[in-house]
Amino acid sequence: MIRLALSSLRFRTAAFLAIFVAVLLGSSLMAAAGGLLETGLRLDAAPQRLAEAPIVVTGRPAYHPPNGSGSVAYPERHAVSSALSAELAGTTGVAKAVEDVAVPASMGGELSGHGWASAALAPYRLIAGRAPAAGEVVLDRRLAGSTRVGSAVSVIVKGESRRYVLAGVAEGAVEAIFFNDREARELSPRPGLVDAIGVFPAAGVPVKGLAEQLDLPTGVVALTGDDRGAAEFAGIATSLPLIILSGVFGGMVGVVMALVVSATIGLSVRQRRRELALLRASGATPEQVRKMVVTETMLVASVALVLGLLLGRTAGDWIFGMLTGGGIVPAALRFDQGVLPFAGSALLTLVILRVTVGIAAGRAARIRPIQALAEAAVPPVTVGRVRTVIGAVFAVGTVGIGVSTIFMSPADAAAIGGPAVLTGSIAVAVLGPLVVRAALTPRVTSFLSSRGSTGALAAINLRVRAVQFAAILVPIVLASAIALGNIYAQTTQQKAAVEAYTDNLYGDVVVSRAGGLPAEVVEQVRRTEGVSAASELVRSQGWIEEPYDSSHTSDPWPLLGVNGPVYKGKVKAGSLDDLTGETVAVPPGVARRLKVGVGSVIGLRFGDDALVKVRVVALAEGTSGYESLLLPSALLAAHTSSGLPTQVLVRTSTPEAVIAGLDLGKWPGATVGSRDVLGADFDTGLGVDAWIAYLLAGIAIAYTAIASINTIAVAVLDRRREFGLQRLTGSTRRQVLRMLYLEHLVIAALGLALGLIAAAFSVLPIAIATRGWPIPSGPWWILVGWVGVVLLLVLPTTAITSRLAMKGKPIDAVV
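Structure tokens predicted for FtsX-like permease family protein (815 residues):
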């Protein structure tokens, strides 16, 4: 049986090559998804600036809801009390404890200021000069460049440009600016707190044992090994984003691979009806035929699977590199792809293959020889009862998902409505032949017939060969639904979120600075001619814990800090003029749910893990589904990593004059712009989710695009005999090619239409849930561009494969 299977491979190169490519890509992408999952579960990130400290004591890096599940990384640095370092130094088994005092300082890049004592945690070693005194700094050699020791350097500290003397140059793991320890404590935005404490065990004391024995306050943790990276790099505290990403990615690849592989295998088996019927007529049993089909397919697939797993490491590194490069995951995170991702990919791929080939082979084995010969000449366009029921279930499920998404909140709409693109595509794949026949309406048939004899033949072929054309239809529908659904769903959600944020804020002019704006800038803006009001703007995230708000657990509340009349939302009770000190304004719906009102005191957990009791002074409405908690800018800024606002909103009737009149030369890095800056800055913060969706869509599109080429090539090359007969009866190559173009253009148009419909069941309900009306947002050229992409896939492939199919003499193809 194996010998027979191997011999048949020689004469079915195109069909088995298509299966080979589909399995190769699918298994490699599945292995890559498994690697992302393992990376998310391990979260290994070797420390760099804290690498020398065996134990790092810091605030817990992730928020765990007290009455909920899941976790989320704190958006701000979680500091610990400086007094704890003295307690740890006096603990039995501890040789010394070194504080890491963070200072919001930079030289035009990221914030990287620290006290000189923390240089021992990397360690950094002096290669020139000495330790810094007051008014001096030590720079990493990459920051120092050609600057000599003793020269003056400019450092942006707490938003202000200050002059320091370069006392020394150090060499270490990452770029850093070191201040005198006493001065660092004074410059720290959180007096009495330190970012981390490096603990060094005494000689002979085991690291893990000592870490477990340390008496630490609530909310403080001792990290060892690669876990120490969570104290140094933001975003490594929780595995949830990578787990979600890998789950969505792996699930999408699995579904796409199952549909594409099943369509390709089914097409290959259907094209061999005559051959299999002759085997049955010559004495082969149904079981022997089934085994032969399964064996030859699994032989090709096994080779593709092995190569796919080898390619899986490269694919995983490539995808993970894009994620780190796009800022979705920290660059310090190590990509882990052990044995399990490859084993899982192999197992899932083999299951998909065995099920799909088993179904196709079972049909080929059960059919009677005479019936098989008849179907080889005129393939029946039928779909079994079970398949019809399955397709109907997925079609009804798609409608149900779309309808239910309409009633979801903006935060849940994408998660609920997103699967509609896959369920709709599955329905088309299962009911493909019926869909092709149903699309051949009298209007379409008459249009084709009006193209002459080639058009009439195209209409007949589409009706008679509906099963084969359904195999070409499936990947086009999949790619179109995934591409248009993911892209327009993301652009719609982004537009809704940006509108909800900007529509609630006044701001004709926006002053921005990445490292933060000191109070002097705000005062300068307020004194500028033409400015009627100005407000600092601070953004962060937090949670309401007292009374506990179960509506926001792993998904935190947006916190918005203001100190002027810049909020547009309607105030239902109280006044925003009272938003000073430790106060808060909450949405009316939240107040009703938590049974609080103006004058009530609630416990708010800030992004730095500080739990602060704040008094409710107003009930302020916001766009439904996008509400924020309003706080005084000074209060919120004190609980951010930089301690400073990053924007100032300006109200004025003459924005052009104000922009021209503001001189920000004293504040390097500060920019002034129109109101559009407000939305652009917020849109940048939304880019992570969008980038993930675009990445998944791009990979799935590439996979299905290759599958489209495969199925078109297999279907065309298998029709050599038909083309030979046409040419012998008087048709020219040009006429045959024109017939093929018409057939594939109809299938391409049908695939685009069905893909657009499947995408609509996702995008339109999301648009209603997020924006209030069923009009998606996004560039129109994406749709036009995708139509061009499909045509570039279909037409050149048709042209090339048709020329190969008609390469020889017509009589040779018939014989």
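The first helix runs from residue 2 to 9.
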